[in-house]
Amino acid sequence: MVQDADGTTENTARGTGSEPEPRRSRPAGAEQAADPGLARIKEAAAGIWDDPWLTIPNLLSALRLAGVPLFLWLLLGPQNDLLALLVLVLSGATDWLDGKLARWLNQYSRVGELLDPAADRLYIVATLVAFVMRDVVPWWVAVALIGRDVVLTLCLPVLRYHGYEPPEVHYLGKAATFCLMYAFPLLLLVQGDFTFSAVVRPIAYAFTCWGGALYLWAGVLYLSQVVAAVRVARRTART
């Protein structure tokens, strides 16, 4: 699904061959008449700060973000894999907790919607960079997974320019992130000379292969939604 700027959702290309009828953002005055896409981007950026951002879930998300450089330093500096694993586990626990608190306390915000996936992506990038430098995974695996995120990030202003919100996270993307978040701690565990390393190693590689494949396929699906939305927006603008 791709959500347009007024909060409604529309079906995009997801193997069905259907395309959305675009709905536009609310008018933003004379500036939008001159360049409506740029006005939508500015309106969205301003709207982020209009939301309440000093909330408990957002503080937890900020704490997760602050743990990224510590996590990377533990992997590359002293190479203390057990402490790095602890940081990763605490990150997963706060990820679960901030979602629960947002629902319990009704503390939803646009800032929180941006911070939460940003922390997930940064942990994935940091882990892949460290694993490549330590020869845990081949470099092309990291390039493929990080490149996927770079491409999709560049699509966000394009969607906003044409009056759409980012695509909703679907089950395949969630499953991919779930697999990778299990794969990384397991890969850390098998780096040491533990008695159970021989048992854990194939499980770690299985999660890595499945998670990586699903992550890339989910990226292809997201990109197809973006292409379909832009095509419809351009076709409608010509009519």
Characterization of the model:
This protein has helices at residues 30-34, 36-50, 56-76, 81-105, 110-133, 139-161, 171-189, 197-238; strands spanning 2-4, 9-10, 164-167. It has 239 residues and is mostly helical. 32% of the residues are buried.
Summed up:
The protein has helices at 30-34, 36-50, 56-76, 81-105, 110-133, 139-161, 171-189, 197-238, and strands at 2-4, 9-10, 164-167.
Oligomeric status of the shown chains?
A: single chain
Reported for the largest beta sheet, the result is: 3 strands, antiparallel
Q: Beta-strand level of the residues, as a percent range? A: under 5%
Counting helices, strands and paired strands, the structural category is mainly alpha
Strand order of the largest sheet: 2-1-3
If helices are DSSP runs of H or I spanning 4 or more residues, what is the number of helices?
A: 8
**Helical proportion?**
over 70%
Q: Which regions are unreliable across 5 or more consecutive residues at pLDDT < 50?
A: 5-33
Rg result = 20 Å
The whole-number mean of residue pLDDT values reads: 77
Identify the overall geometry.
Answer: globular
The span between the termini is 24 Å
Order of helices and strands: EEHHHHHHEHH
What's the count of strands? 3
